[in-house]
Amino acid sequence: MTPPMAVDGPVVVAVGGGHGLAASLRAARGYAGAVTAVVSVADDGGSTGRLRAAGDRPAPGDLRKCLVALADADSPLLRAMEHRFEAGELQGHALGNLLIAALEDSEGDLVVALDEVGRLLGTVGRVLPTTTVPVQLRAVVGSGAEIRGQVAVARQPDLQLVTIDPPDAPACAAAVDAILAADQVVIGPGSLYTSVLAATAIPGIAEALSATAGQLVYVCNLRPQASETEGYGVADHLDALARHGIRPAVVVYDPETIGEPDRPVDAELRPATLCDPGGGAHRPERLGPVLADLAGAPDWRAP
Questions:
Q1: Distance of CA 236 to CAs 71, 100, 241, 260, 264, Å?
Q2: How many CA atoms does the CB half-sphere of 60 hold within 13 Å?
Q3: What pLDDT digit, counting tens, does each position of 66-96 carry?
């Protein structure tokens, strides 16, 4: 069974997408009294891209990853959610993506579909999309050229600004409410432009992040990402966030991987060892205690 959430723990919202957001959710499970994921739905690659091409819909892939991160470890559906078919017309599709898409179609509401999958998985928190309408990621590079589509944007160096098409895509109301009610909002880690800033590019989400009284924490990536953040250090990450109107109060980073900031930054710095030696991903058991301490929560415990 899934252990209960921490008694009197803070209300935590994690914003972003991909495997990085899933790591933050696993970290938050160890100290939060309640946890919600607010997830980018602009992905257009792999199984998700095929589902979007077959029927215009918000991307389900990162939503699936977050549901799995919050799921009951004993759920018989848990392993099946990540199962990918190896042959036939379904080759490459993750079952969880198909389940989310099917429930969205049958229920007529993506939020209802995600809540139902969460119930089946016994999740300890809630997973919400940034928007319930289909969106496409757009980016402007240093030359002024415009790039369209998440996969194409991820391949580009010298990214300057990302936006969403349609630009007036409405934010998921439940996601906005969750951000405004949070004690702590964790942004990232994850691909800076195509996961983190893709999530905050929904105008209502960015406005909620500016308006929330919760502690805004940015978890920096461990290393630069080829093309997308090539050559970036901690200060470059914060500069990119600022260009998009996102100004975290605290930045958590691993000086052993990405190094120390090379210039002053307008945020509290919290250096910490966030991965195993030589590791390429944030470890929830290393990130969790740091976030718990920032939130003034009791000691972190393994979920």
A1: 34, 36, 9, 11, 11
A2: 32
A3: 999 999 988 888 888 877 776 667 666 778 8
Residue 107 lies in a domain: no
Nearest to 162 by CA among 173, 174, 148: 148
User: Measured between alpha carbons, how far is 269 from 303 in angstroms, rounded to an integer?
Assistant: 27
CA atoms within 13 A on the CB side of 239: 12
Task: Work out the average pLDDT over 189-211.
Answer: 97
**pLDDT (average), residues 285-303:** 92
CB 272 within 8 A of CB 290: yes
CA–CA distance, 233 with 263 (Å, rounded to integer): 10
Which CATH number is 139's domain given? 3.40.50.10680
- Rg of the chain in Å (alpha carbons): 18
**SS3 category, 252:** strand
| Cα separation, 244 vs 238, whole angstroms | 10
Domain that holds residue 275: 11-43+130-294
Each residue of 283-292: pLDDT tens digit?
999 999 999 9
pTM reported for the whole predicted model: 0.94
Query: Is the Cα torsion angle 187, 189, 190, 192 positive or negative in sign?
Result: positive
Under the banding of pLDDT at 50, 70 and 90, the label for residue 165 is: very high
